[in-house]
Each structure stands twice: as structure tokens, then as C-alpha cells.
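Changelog-linked ticket: FE2/S2 (inorganic) cluster example.
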Amino acid sequence: MDESDLPTWPPGTDLETVGTGVPRREAPAKVTGGAVYSSDLRLPGQLYAAIARSPHPHARVRSIDTERARRQPGVVSVIAGEEGGEGVTWYEESVPLFGPVARFAGDEVAAVAATSLEAARDAVRALNVDYEVLAHVVGIDEAQRPEAPSIHGTPGNRTTDPKVEERGDVAAALAAAPIRIEHTYRTPTAVHNALETHGAVAWWQPDRLTIWASTQGVTQVAQMTAEALGLDQSQVRVITEHVGGGFGAKQVPWKDVAIAALLSRRTGRPVQCAYDRHGENVAAGKRGATRQRVRIGADTDGRLLAIDAELVGDSGAYQTAGEAAALWGPYQGLYRCDNVRTSVTYVYTNTGPAVAFRAPGYVEAAFALESAMDELAHRLGVDPIELRRRNHTGVDQQQAKPWSSPDSLPLIYDRISALAGWDARPRNAPPAPGGDGGVRRGWGFAASDWLAGKANPPGYASVELRTDGSAEVVTTVQDIGTGTRTVLAQVAAEELQLPVEEVRVTLGDTAAGPPSPTSSGSATTPTMAPAVRAAAADARHQLVAAAARQLDCAPGDVTLDHGKLVAANSGSRTVAEVLEGLSPAAVHGWGELVAVDDSVSVRTFGAAVAEVSVDTGTGEVRVTRMVSVPDCGRVLNPTLVASQIIGGVTQGIGFALTESQLVDAELGLPVNDSLEEYLVPTVLDICPIEAVPLDRPDTGANQLGVKGIGEPPMIPVAPAIANAVFDAIGIRFHELPLTRRRVLDALAEAASPDESEPA
Amino acid sequence: MLTLTVNGQPHPVAVEPRRILLDVLRRDLGLTGTKEVCEMGNCGACTVLLDDEAVYSCLVLAVECEAQEIETVEGLARGQELTAVQEAFVACDALQCGFCTPGQILSMEGALRRRPDADEAALTEAVTGNLCRCGAYRNIVAAAGRVAATSSGGAG
Ligand code: FES
Ligand code: FES
């Protein structure tokens, strides 16, 4: 059954299980150590792999002498160089798995399988790799210089030609605008640093390759691995029970999968290949740094007349598949503006490859755009939220069609201002330039949109009803820690009128059914929840039809009422009784979501308010309170939605204040490649977070009215914090993160009268 | 050959002196609830109790632990009955991917062994060395509050 054949759940639908805070299903397993991650697998005869990585940011591999490594105790197999990669190619550039040229410090050149991890690591140290060191370049500005070393032989080290989108006449509108704001903003390279590193166990048996992967997309790993290794997709089975964090970095397969598979084919034994923390920091994806030259023109009421954004992002040494960092997004879509031009260029550098990281592109662009909007509000003396209202649009101006939820943003503005107490916030007296050594406080606001959060078809599911009164939902899709199992159980329970405990969910295994979407673009719930509902409805219809046959009446006369099938005049039967009359004694429903309504544009909107304190003596910024109001359509489970919001807000705080991968320009080496020096937030860095989703079913998105929530809450956090810092100390920052050094330098500059920037 | 006492059970194991307790628990004894994340004392995911004290098992050599009682996340619950800390993590949804969770829980358990009436602040203090990349901290603090409120003499 197709989900679109079912009636919508309009706002106000009386639902029993959906919308309640059903506890996360796997929580008991996770608190007792019973949850098994791919890194926990210990198969009989399992070998452990270690990877040899280039210590140079750019080098030709002249030769690899594996002799000494092969003789180490415990070593079973060594694969090195192009030959060792057996023709497998990687990245969008299709370079050999172990290439003749290493393009970043950490690029893979060889791997070893041994009976213990220690032995494998010892053997990697015993490899003798002869490198011819080449000139390298890191940093997007440097990589764009004409004299920069060329990484892939492309002009200006560009990955492709700039992607330019323009509507209206931007140059003329900017020239005529009475108010103009122009700055260059920068965001840092940020590393996902999921606690479970990328890793897989591969077991190659004669006709079948089984992979237990730490991934956000079992189907995609199966597809891409089959393609890379020249197998039929039906020969590759991928299993993912639990994932120790992904955040985008695990939405495409990485080399761990291929290395484990090749070593398993050679040895005939299961092989585990997991990155160590260094590998995770340098070679497993990142949010690439950006430079954003933004020009905004507005009228004296603050209405936007023109936006021009010249956007450059760091791709690292290679391009990866998956979601692109859509840096143009907020400029093109968040506000009404007739004249908009965005130009996006990605540049190769000799650093690890970039990949999607929670709302890729939007997090970076929102910092720039929402800082500029705040500046515009202050310049005009207009309230920052009022300025956004004046620039609201209910339509997707790029595609010239309405948003599926055109009034979400104004409602979010109302909700967040009331919740935060925005209008009653303390108004600061203008700060002393450079601060007075004391602690100052401030409030900041930012709005957000996100191009995803809609279904990513196709999604398939089945639901089986059994005589014990239970139902089993089966789908191949994975649960990456977002609560997918739990919400799918709720949706099936709702449709079948079952207590949610009676619904089991089996997922995360490509052998269980048709392909499923990768958990990216906040698409898992909006794709899979409607499919599961359709499967449950299909099972219910079959059950009703069977009951009608048994009760000798028309199906239209039978209704399901909490475990009983009741016919108007012919009595009733329990579900178990009806099923026992069937052979086999079960019904099996299929559900799918195969298309989305293209007449509307689905977006997930949101906003955040930050309260901060800034110690003008030490430069320390502390976030003291965050309020987040995202729109994810209907809330299926308020507990799980709140968890997603606090997670996104917390990562946003890290992005705003501390996170930045630092690469030594001379050496081309990341200097903070550990969790000691790459500073993710700790429990001491966070603050009270009020997470209040709008909870308005968006029936333009799908029949259930659900949209994704995984990514959007992170988007407005950093600009809200930066705007609050401006409110506190009167200094506008154009670069993240807001480290103490950066804040102290800015305070010192503000104190020296010549260079102070007008507040 | 040495004998490690883990969750009350003696385990004879043959290990090289250079091997860390974390690795021996995970690979030799199959107790994979204790997580390996950084292997250098930065994240707390490998936390276990050593004679009731929370330690990073990646910073302890297995051979050092012979005479001590080792407790891991697998040893906390009695059958289906969760400890107050485990129950609070479930009730407060103090986890997402769950990879940091065993370490967070054992850090709090360690604080409770020291001071059974530890308050929310003390239990939160106990997890300052436990990173959670999913950012579940607000709910972890809520779990600390729930434990403090329900533990005997929880006024703290
Ligand atoms: S693995 Fe021991 S502290 Fe990170
Ligand atoms: S729950 Fe994922 S790291 Fe804490």
C-alpha cells in the first residue's frame, strides 16, 4: 500500500500513541552494555586491521617495502600500494584505494591484518614507505593563489566551476540600496568526532560478503561496496544494529569497509578495520572551512533589496558523495528578496576530505547571513525579530512554489519571543570600548531554514501480525541513535490500535527487505514513518477482510477496535481468532512511500535565542541559556525530539565557541587531532536549553505531517550566540569560533580608538 | 597468566605486560560494554570501577589490576533490575547513540560509592571527564538530578 492512499492525519487528529514520550526502545540495552556496535564484534577467527597513512600532506609513493612487516609475529596479510588495492577506486575522483600520490597527511597507503590489533599496528610501523615529498597547500585562500601547488590539476584548485544562481539584477539593486552591509565571514573546519570511529567487520564467504558497518546507510554501503569490488549487490549484506554517532560523516562508506573486505577475501577470515582517533580526525570527513563575502542591500525599513554572496568552501583533498554543503541555501531562501546572487566554489587543499556534517552548508551560511541581519537591525534601530518578520516569505523563490508550511516562521517568531521573554530582555547600556574587565551579558537571535527534512523516497516497510497479538515491523533502514526504532513502533501501534510494547521493530539489515534511504538530510522519519503506517494499514485491511469472510459480512461492516474485529450485526472476533483461521496464521502488510508532492516546497524552519556572558578580562564567552523552536511538523515523540534539539544546540555551542581543526601551514599537519586538543563541548560548557518544537503537522510534507529534526536545530545556534556577544560587548565577530584569544584581541582593538569599528 | 576479578568472577588471562585493561576487557573477556574511543584518557568512554573507584581503563595496565575488584557496565544490573543510575538514564533519555553511556554511568556509580547521598552537582561533577558527542548533557544532568532525588538521603 502506498502511504498517499491513506487519509492524512490533520492537525487535531486524536492519536493514542503518536505524540507521547514513549521511552527509547534500545535504552535498556545501552545502559547495561548489551547494545552491540560494529566495533564490538568478535567473530571466530577474526583478524584486526591497521592502516598505514601518509605522514606527508602531499607526496608521491615511490615504493613500499612490506618484507619486514610481513615477518612480524601475528601478521596474516599486508596490502600496499596500487596493487594491494586490487583496482578498487575511491572518492569522486576515482583515485586508487592506495594511490600513487598521497594528497593529505593521513591518506591511506597500505593496510595490515593480524591476529591482534597490537600486532597489526606493529607491522604498520615496520612498513618501509619511500616518499617523494611534493609541495603542499592548506587553507582556501592559499589554495586559490595562482602559484599554489596543484592538487588535481584543476584551475585554481577548484573542484568544479563555480555554481552560480542569480535572480533579478543584483548589481543594480545593490547600487541603489540606501543601506548596505558588506563583510567577509569565515567559519572553521570542524570535525564530527563521533565517539565510535568509522569501522567495519567484513567476512567474505565463498558467494557472499557480509559487512557489519558503523554507518548511516546500510543500503548505500551495500551498493557502493558491491560496485567497488565488482560484486552483485545481492551478494553483499550490510548489518548495522547500533551506531556510535554519525552526524553526517557516516553517510557514505569510507575506506575501512573496502580494506576490511579486501583483507577478508585474501585471508578467508572475518577482518575488523576501525580507524583510530587520529584517523577519525584526519581522514574520516569534516565540515570544511568557508570564506563568505556577503553584500546586503536594504531599504530604510530594513526590507532586503539585494543579496550577493561569494562563497568558497574547503573540500579537502577529495570530494565525497552524499549531501553537498549547500552554502547558497539560506541566502536564496530564508528571506524575501527579488535580487539574489550566490556563487559557490569548492577548493581542493592538502587536508582530509570534507563530507556532510549536520545541516552542511546551512550551519556555515547562517552564521554569516544571520550576523548580517542582526547588524542591519541594529543599524536601523529595528528589533531583530521584527526585521525578520518584515522580510518573511511564504514561497520558495528559487522554485517559485509555496512552502509546505508557509506560516511556520512567523509562528516560530511569536513562540520563541514569548518563551524567551525577548521583549522584556534587559537592554544594555553601551559597553565601554574594550570592556572594563568585568562580565557583560547579552541576548541574541537567529532564524533558520533547511532545505531537507522531507521524505527521501523510496521507503519500504512490512508489518506482520501474529496470533500472540504482536506485530513486527521490518525495514532495512538503520537507527543511528536518533530513535528511529521507537517512532516506527509508535506509528505502527497507532494504526493497529496496539499497545506500543506489542510492536517489535527489526531494522538495520539489508537482507531484511528492499533498499532504504541513508539517514541523511533528516529524512529517515519523514520517509519511513509514512511507509510503516502504510504497511500497518495494509495489514489492518487484510485482517478486516479476513474477519469479514469469517463473519460472513462485507469488509465495510467490520471495524478494528483495540484487538477485536467487530461487525455491525454479525458479532465479533479477536485478532488472534481471525489469524488462526488463516494459513499461515498471520497477515503480512507492505507499505511504501515512493514519491513526494512536488507542488509545494518542504522546508524545516527554526529559530534560536541565546543568552551569553562575556568576561572582558579573560575573553571567555559562556552561553548561559538557549531557547530553540524548530518546526519538524507533527512531533511523533516529544522526548526524542527534545533529545535531538538539545544535541543540535550543544554541537552548535561547540561550533560557535571552541571547535576548529588547526592545520600547521608550514608542515601541512593537523595539530589538534585528538579529543584532548580538538575541543568538543563537555558537560561544563552547556547551559539550560529550552527545546520547544512548533508541533504543527505539515500535511504538505506527507500524510502524517512529519518532517525531520536531526539537523535543523544546530543551524541558528552559532549566529544567535555571536549576536548575543555583540549585544554584550558591542563587537561584531566575522569569524568563528569565538575563542578567548579572538575575543581578547577584538577587545584590545576596540580599546584603541583609531581602529575601533562603529558599533 | 594472571587472574582478573571482573564483576565478581575470576578470569584467568594471559596478557602481555604492555596491554591496557580496556583492551583485555573488550578483546580477551568479550566485555564490550566498556567502550574504546581515544585510548589516551581524553574521553571517559572506557570508565570502569576499580575497587569502587571510577578510572579510565585505557590508562591502566591489566597486570596492575590483579588484586583489585573490577566492575564494568555489564555487572551493574541484577537481572532485569537496573541500578538507580541506569534507570535514571533511561527515564531521562540521557543518551542518543549510547556510546558514551557506559562510561557516564560508571562515573556516576563511582561518585555514589564514595558518597551514597551525592547531590546533583556532585554527580554532574563526576561526569566532567566523560565526553558525549551527541550532546545529551542536559539529559545527563537531569539523570544526575533524578538519582540524587531518589537515592537514600538524597537531599545531599
Ligand atoms: S578511551 Fe579511555 S579515556 Fe577515552
Ligand atoms: S550518546 Fe552518543 S556520545 Fe553520548
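Closing comment: Example verified and attached. Chain A touches chain B through 60 residues (CB under 8 Å). The CA atoms of residues 442 and 728 of chain A lie 4 Å apart.
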